[in-house]
Amino acid sequence: MKIILTGPTGHIGSNVLKAALAHPAITSIITFSRRQLPTSFPDPQNKLQLIIQSDFTSYSDETLKACAGAEACIWGMGVANMETGRTIIVDSTIAAAKAFVDAKVAGEGKKFRFVHLSGMFVEKDQEKRLWFMNEGRKIRGVTEVELMKMDKQHPEALVAYIARPGGVTATNSFFPALLEPLARFINVDDLAAKMLDIAINGHDTQTLEVDVLRNEGKRLRKHSRVDSK
């Protein structure tokens, strides 16, 4: 299976990329990045093709041709500040989903899975007064609304999924796993495993909250360890 991935140099995206490189069902990965990748991604099967992209709101014919045959995209771009947040979170996400659907990268008559990394406490009501993280929560709310609107406009070509993790801990975090549900945390490896699984197999729910992502991600990783023995 061929997939598209963004955000490969970030905390979450880099772990999704590592999981994809190791997954037997993934045969090809087109990854978009603003800069070169570090050398810490083992790719013995030559699955990875890097495309350096500075503008994530516009895609050339050549770029879309390279994406042909991809059945899913994991959109994992993050933002360092809210000054560029609307462009990166809203505009880039919607532009990419539209470009991939319009180009029919998955193939004629096939549904393209678009897995969007959102966040917890998203607010879709743009008029609501919020006490914390006002702008970021509303921007993510706009993105979710627009993405699901596109999903409904193209039922034959697109199925959108939204992942809403809470706090994301590192691979070797000292944070106790038993306390993750109370803190609404999720380990990055569990999140990566579940987002990749959605890209491969889909899901019966299109918006997945942190508890579902964590529990199903842990099960996937447990089964993977058992199968590898």
Q: How would you describe what is shown here?
A:
The protein is α/β, with parallel strands linked by helices and 229 residues long. 41% of the residues lie in helices and 19% in strands. It has seven helices and nine strands. The strands form two sheets. A seven-stranded parallel beta sheet has the order 3-2-1-4-5-6-9, with helices on both faces. The chain has a two-stranded parallel sheet with strand order 7-8. β7 (167-169), α5 and β8 form a beta-alpha-beta unit. α1 crosses α6 (188-201), α3 (85-102) runs parallel beside α4 and α6 packs across α7 (210-228). The mean pLDDT is 90.
Series of H and E elements: EHEEHEHEHEEHEHEH
Helix content: 40-55%
Q: Main sheet?
A: 7 strands, parallel
Rg, Cα atoms, Å: 17 Å
Strand order of the largest sheet: 3-2-1-4-5-6-9
Low-pLDDT windows of residues: none
Terminal residue distance = 24 Å
Number of helices: 7
* Classification by helices and strands: alpha/beta
Strand content: 15-25%
Mean pLDDT over the residues: 90
